Structure formats: structure tokens, C-alpha cells
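User: Earlier you gave me the apo prediction for this protein. Now I'd like the version with zinc ion bound, so I can compare the two side by side. Same sequence as before, with the ligand SMILES added.
Assistant: Got it. Here's the input I'm using:
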Amino acid sequence: MGSNGQTRRERAGVSRRAVLKTGAVTGAAAAGAAAMAGTAAAAPATAASGASGAGGSRPTAPDGDVILRNGAIHLMDGAGTVASVLAIRGGLVVYAGDSFGAAKQQFATAPQAIDLHGQMAVPGLIDCHNHFVLMGNRPGHHVPLENAYSIADVQAIYAARAATLPPSPNPPASADDFITTIGGFAAIQFKEVRLPTLAELDAAVPGHPVYISLGFTGPSVTNTLGKAFFENVAPPTGPVPVGADGSIAASPFLASGPTGQATLALRHTLTFDARKRGVRDAMAYAASVGVTTHLDQGAFQATDTPADGSAHEDNYTMHLPFLAVYGEGEQRDVEQAVEAAVRLRINWLLFDSDPSIPVATARIQNAFPFFGNDLVRTGAAGEFLADIFHYAGGNATWMNAALEAARAGWRAEVHSLTPADFQTEIAGFEAVNAQVPITGLRWVVAHVPFITPDYVARLKALGGGVNLTPYEYFNTANPGGPPYRMLVDSGIPVGLSSDGMQIAPMNPWIHAYYATTGLNALGSQINPGQQLTRAEVLDHYTRANGWFLGGQDEDLLGTLEVGRIGDVVVLSGDYFAVPDEDLKKLHSVLTVLGGRVVHSGGIRYWA
Ligand SMILES: [Zn+2]
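And here is the structure of the complex with zinc ion:
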């Protein structure tokens, strides 16, 4: 943190800690500054005038100063501009062009200048539909496996993780002793097309218990130490039946079963500190694959029984470890900290089963859309308006919640998985619109693997958008969808997102691979004729996704134009030139969040 930032904060009369703690202060400051920001930020500050105060009238966090030079920096401004020099002051872009000298003129004291050696850089990617909060709350030392292509890769990632941890007691005492992967990968991504075995996991990780669980409800696998833990779980949760090969059978969806028992047993030993550690690990991973902003879409409400799967959590407490990490970031040396390495946006998943909609009513009456600060801010309703048994549009519970959201002026997002979901939902949107106009509210239907042009036209007429996710990459159905080409050509707002971390990878470069090739994890063509260009994918993961964030973010994130927030990702290769198979392996070699370096090097699986 430079002295310039300090000066600005003193001038603004509000400490960064206060900004982080109270969204109201940020909101007021942002509103007050908004009128000035356009002109003030664009005006080059002189070296003598106290650059930060003169230029960066809108406070943001982080508020770092840095110059990136000798890069191929794609501003994603809609005009195809590529700059070689980018200056970020007080967290905001103050110069984008080709003159290092002009960039330095933006500062009273020149900040760190990083030579990109010609590497390609892009705005920090926006993932406008994922379950990042679930990832941060996973039990155990959670490591994503979405970048593993073989059992040997799994073993290498797990062995590397084990090397950082103290030895486990035998038998293990809690989730803290475990290395885990819960969701976000599929067996078909491994060349062996199966999960690892107990023997293979023992060979890689002899001194720590392991729990690897597929999708929402398994199946799962453990090693010898993990087996010892699970077989000793006390009733009523345990004992968990574990096969001699370490296999733990899948649970039926939303019903009790062995994988549900195992996940619940681990969750019962989770502490708040462990959840905070999980948040920091998740953030470090996200920053390393280049996703700097996450719009979280909630969880199935936990029942605290073995019927809970990987997508269940407590919607009333699961954000607290994130808020704690965002708060703590202020107390640390921000040059070194991985704290708050990414931005979080929070949608509220509404889960009423009762048509009197107590959950939706309470949330809508007591929460505010787009409230918070640039690091963590609320969104609105999504990805359900009613629970999994009432999520089809037109259902009385769904309709009541949708009408309540419309009356409050809330944005809403729903998910469509089947050939029927989008039809009932878009018809439901139309029925709401007949009573309360929603055409200005940007209501969104997510996933839409089967959506048809007639329904796209109806949704477009409602001012809506579609949010496309790549979970078909893990499937084999043909055509798998979503119909990317038809949707982009239709002119409806299209967002690209991951729907990580249960049924899909968060890694946006895997999505880029799927969207541009139509090839699934087995290498089979499952989406013929529906491909996007790489340029379209990049545009939709940055600039175009601003529409889906909405609120203040739309004017601050997704591009690197002057006045925008300086979130930058320097890529490990040339996105436009690497062969298709290498697209999946792109990652960030340098991630800058608001002018602060939060990641450098290779893919990082923990903080
Ligand atoms: Zn989702």
C-alpha cells in the first residue's frame, strides 16, 4: 500500500476498514463521487498535485498502485484496443496506452512497474454464476481436481497438498486432518475414466485421510486413514459403509446414503477457523485461474442430515467466513496477503415450499440488492425463487416469490436444466410481467441446454438474459448444449459462467475450450454447430458479463478503460494462438486486484 492511498483515504475522511465494514459508507461515498468520477479520473494528474487525491475521487478496495508495461493488454473496451502500458492508481485504471512516461506522470511517486515481456493480459474474468461460497465452506483441506487429466495428476496434486500439512493422527480426529475434493470434476476427465482407488490414494498420501466425492451426491472414495475415520463415525450419522477398495456409494439425490453420511460427518467437525481457511484457499485458486469476480448463486438449504449433498449449506451463515476474511484483509500487509484475493457478489437463493413464502418475504424485506463495497456486495434473487420441488415457473409458491421480487424491483435468476424448465419459467416471467413490469429488471434464466429460438425471443422481449454454463463438458449426451451460437446470434444478453463447484469446473479456460470446440472431457463432439469464437468467449467472460453483475459493478468491472477498477490477469499463453487442447491449461501468471498483486506463478490450489 503506497502513501498515495493513505493520503486519499484521509482526505475522504473514511478509513478503508470503515469502508470494508459498512457498506452504507461505501455506498454514500460512491454515490457522492459518481458525478465527479468521469471527469476527474480521466484528467491526467500532475506529479506535484498529490496524484491520488486529484485523480481517484472514488474510493475502492483494494486501492493499490502499479504500472504494467510491455504487455499485450486487451482492454475489452468493445473497440478491440490493445495497450502495452496500463497504470492503476488507488485501485482504478488511470492510464491505458503505449507510453510508460505518460503512465508515470499519473503518480506523485512512481509505483512498482512490472514488465510483462509481451505477455497477453485481460481484465480479471467475471464468473456470473457459480457456487464459490460452497467451495469456501468445504470440509477438509479442499483441493480442486478440475485440472487433473489422469490418476497420476490426482496423486501429484494430493501429494503436494499433504507435504504442506502436519501429520494426521491415526485414526483422524476431524475434517482438519483430511485432504478433500467435493464436486467440480468428473471421472471422464481422467484418462483412466474412473476414480482413484484406495491403494492409489494410499500410495500418494499415506499420512493423511482423503475424501474425493463426485458431483452432488457421489460416489466417493477414501484411503486407509479415511476409512478408519468414516467407519468409526458414531450414530446416527455413522458408521459410514466403505468398500475394501475405498469406495463410498452415492446417495440418491436429496435422500440419505453413504456419501451423504460421509460428507455430513466431515461437516460436523468443521470449525469457523477452518471455513475461513477454506475461503482463503478458494480465493487463491480462483485468482490463479484468473477469475477475480464471482457472483455466487447460493445453496440448497442444509437439513443437517445425510440427505444433504455437496450443494447444501446454511444460507444464513455460509457467508460469514467470507465476511470475516474480507474484514481481516485490512489488518495484514496487503503486499503479501492472499486475503481477499477476489471479489464476491451474493445472490440469495430463495427456497420456499409454502405458498405464503416466508423465506422470500423476509429476505426481500430485509436485504438490499447491490449493497456493500467493491470487494463484497449483494446481488439479488437467484438461482431459485422457490425450493427444488417448486422451482418450475407458474407454481403458486414460485409465482408468489417472483411477484414479491418484481414488486421490490429485484433482479431474479432461475435455472433451467430440462427441456421443460425454461418453458415454465419464461411463461412464469410473462405472467409476472402482466401484473408487475419486469422489463427493466434483467431477469435471467441460467444454463438453458435445451432452449429454443421462440422462447429466446419471448425472454428477450421481457428484457431478460441467459447465463450459460459448461457442465455438459462432463456429460456425453449429444447435442449437449447450450446452443451458444444461436443465443449469441439472437442478440439476447448472454453471460458466460461456470456453475462450479458441484457439477462443473470453475476454471474459465475449460469453459472456453468447451464453448469454442463443442468437445466434452472425453474429446467427443457433443454440441455440433454451436461454437463461439475465442474473441466472443473472452468478451462474454469480461465486458458482457457486466450486464449480469448489474448495479455499480457494470460501470466498474469487466474492462480496463480509464476510470474502471484495475483487475488484471496476465495469461500463461496467448489465448488467441494456443492450440485447442492447450486452451484448457491456460491460467494466470500474475493477477492484479485493484492494483494489488494477489497471485503470481502457476495454478495455486491453496493459499
Ligand atoms: Zn448454479
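For your comparison, keep in mind: Residues 1-55, 333-338 have pLDDT under 50 and may be disordered.
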